[in-house]
Design a protein that fits this description.
The complex is a heterodimer.
Chain A lengths: L1 E3 L5 E6 L16 H6 L2 E5 L18 H13 L5 E5 L1 H7 L8 E5 L12 H11 L6 H10 L7 H8 E4 L2 E4 L3 H10 L6 H4 L7 E5 L7 H10 L4 E4 L7 H4 L1 H13 L2
Parallel strand pairs in A: 2-3, 2-4, 4-5, 5-8, 8-9
Antiparallel strand pairs in A: 1-3, 6-7
Chain B lengths: L1 E4 L2 H6 L5 E4 L4 H6 L4 H4 L10 E5 L2 E2 L15 E6 L5
Parallel strand pairs in B: 1-5
Antiparallel strand pairs in B: 1-2, 3-4, 3-5
Classes of the chains: A alpha/beta, B alpha+beta.
Amino acid sequence: MLEWGAENGRPLVFLHGLGPFNAGAASIGTVAPQWADDGFRVLAPNAPGFGASPSLEPEEYSVRRVSELIAGVIDELERPAVVGFSWGGRIALRLPPEQVSALVLLDIGYKPPPEFPRYEQLVTSYREKWPSWASWDAFLAEAREFTKDTPGTEERLRAAMTERDGRVVPRLAPEIAAGAFSWIPREPDAEWLARWRRTPVLLLVATEPRVDEASVTEFAAALPQAEISRVPRAGHDVLGDNAAVAAPRVANFLRSR
Amino acid sequence: MALVRLPALLAREAGGQREFDIDAATLGDALRALPVRDLCLDERGELRRLVNVFVDRQDARGGDGLDTPLRADSEVVIVTAIAGG
């Protein structure tokens, strides 16, 4: 787990997303100090298989199972605020609401999840085609074609990768990615939303591309007390693409609740 | 005609156009018809490592890949793999 801020700060737990290029807890390395300056004690656990956290067996990567493990972290804190990005937001939705003072969902929870093939098919494909590069320069040069040049981008990219057998590869094992992705379509979020009706909730929504408004409307109907805010010039990675807007919105929302 | 949606970064390279209606039998045919095909496909004609594609909400990379068949009303969504999810 990574931590930022004073120990007596209001606890804010960040739950990261999923993917071979996700740096886990380190993905908020640029934003977390800003939240710490705002008075939060920021804690970012690495989910199993990310960072130094031991992996689970691939079949154990249901969102619910990972959420149970994270609940053990939440339990040690005094009703923290929880901020979840993508997969991390889905994990957050399955936490016990009575243990959470406020919930922030970063571009998740309002649309049905994509479909992924079964684990066996995914892991075969991922093992055959798991990305690798001959050098850090080669990886970063290609990665820059597909990322916005925002503060902390290179640090996040580097934190997601490692060297193995002379190649630059994702830290995340293909088996873990396959396990987690294969569970996604089996666990829709809609049935979990109503549990949060008595909790302050902020949903930050991507704008590039502009999202399906019907899905956002459904989310608003399920959680009428929720604030919904669209982050300009931001794709799915709202914090990475526009931290200048998204990070203060999170802090301002949490400060008032 | 399948509808192909680009992420903002690729749309910028396509003159700002984010959606394309493409008459194609397979995903590979559709990607090869795009003005940003070189950002989607590598020199061997395979899907680039940092691009994920969903056909009708299904991850094409873990399925039939570029051979994924397209229907007339298929939706192809291209996302950059970097963002994760």
